[in-house]
């Protein structure tokens, strides 16, 4: 009886280690895939990029998220959301972390539509906004 309990405990330990290792590998792979997809779009490659009037021409020049005193660079996350969500950006700590815990935060984006003059848009935390280039 003691032997069988010991064997069950050993099997459970092996399964637990295997599950955690697989989870870590999956997370690492997901980050690798996200970074490569982003880098390809940054270079201007059109692989996996949907074309749609209004937002496909958007070039995010600057995106700052945070409070008056503490901000973080949210360009990368904003670009991803614009590409994946047809120009819509959800404002929150998912952009680049929480640069000012407990404080009211805003996202300020400066973007261009082709060769036009830069446009600036601001939204508060928990709001969503839509970038587009329609006239």
Folded structure, characterized:
Helices cover 38% and strands 24% of the residues. The protein has two helices and six strands, in the order H-E-E-H-E-E-E-E. It has 135 residues and is of the alpha+beta class. The model is unreliable at 24-52 (pLDDT under 50). The strands form two sheets. A four-stranded antiparallel beta sheet has the order 2-1-4-5, covered by helices on one side. Strands 3-6 form a two-stranded antiparallel ribbon. The chain has helices spanning 2-42, 75-84, and strands at residues 58-66, 71-73, 88-90, 106-113, 119-124, 128-130. The chain has two domains: 1-49; 58-130, no CATH class. The longest helix has 41 residues, at 2-42. The N and C termini lie far apart (78 Å).
Name the features.
2 domains, 38% helix, two-stranded antiparallel ribbon, 2 helices, 24% strand, alpha+beta, 6 strands, single chain, elongated, 135 residues
Q: Could you give a short description of this structure?
A:
The chain is α+β, with helices and mostly antiparallel strands and 135 residues long. Helices cover 38% and strands 24% of the residues. It contains 2 helices and 6 strands.
